[in-house]
Amino acid sequence: MAALGWLTPRRRSATARSVLAGEASAEAARKTSQDVSAQEQQFPVQGDDKAAAFFDLDNTVMQGAALFHFGRGLYKRKFFETRDLAKFAWQQAWFRLAGVEDPEHMQDARDSALSIVKGHRVSELMSIGEEIYDEYMAERIWPGTRALAQAHLDAGQKVWLVTAAPVEIATVIARRLGLTGALGTVAESVDGVYTGRLVGEPLHGPAKAEAVRALAVAEGLDLSRCAAYSDSHNDIPMLSLVGHPYAINPDAKLRKHARACDWRLRDYRTARKAAKVGLPAAAGVGAVAGGTAAAIALHRRRR
Length: 303
What we know:
The chain is α/β, with parallel strands linked by helices. The chain starts with 15 loop residues before the first helix and ends with a helix. It has helices spanning 16-42, 66-76, 82-98, 103-117, 122-137, 143-154, 167-176, 206-219, 236-241, 252-261, 271-275, 279-302; strands at residues 52-55, 158-166, 181-185, 187-190, 193-198, 227-230, 244-248, 264-266.
């Protein structure tokens, strides 16, 4: 058995050096744990009233386009005809497939959307917006992004939606999520009735950055301490404006830019969709086209 003595653990008293090494290791582990915890809690900073968070809406906070879901609700309420729904769906599909913003095409899309609400009261659209949120939007909120927004709220910071969607829709969504408010595209109204024209231009791309900048001045915010979240490369101007930019469910161009700039990335899509960033657009087109075809078929059958 003596030959097997090397298998038996040897018991020996700890030396002063081994005690010192053990204590140093334990202290380092504890300090590292505290440092990691501090880094995790560092942002958003509790009680920093000079900081706020700005969230894009479509595909960042909510799956899909708010305007499309709103359009579905208006169609259900007979605000426009089947041919208008088909045209609207095609415009959305073209934009998703092309991935570029042709000025004439975008103007045509804006005119179509504005013609739908022309002559209706703002209060009417706000009320309908509440119903449409429950019908089509509530279940499409990304839980992960919602948690990020809540972290800012819990830290005592204001949280704003920033979207090209009409400000009335954005305001409804912000209120239902418990956010501070929303920046969105403003449609002109006179005596509470839509005229069918915009005030300025859609809140898109550089216009979002300008809106955030103006709000920061009005609210006394320090943009270097603020955060912004978006899925689209079109929002790089807004993301570049703040000290804490986040790419959420990013498209291919934003993902590449975010990695180059060492921005934080969050992806709440399935692994398959996240890996094949180009496919959701095509899938979205198929869903729109399929939904439109089904709506038209159902409409004709009822006739």
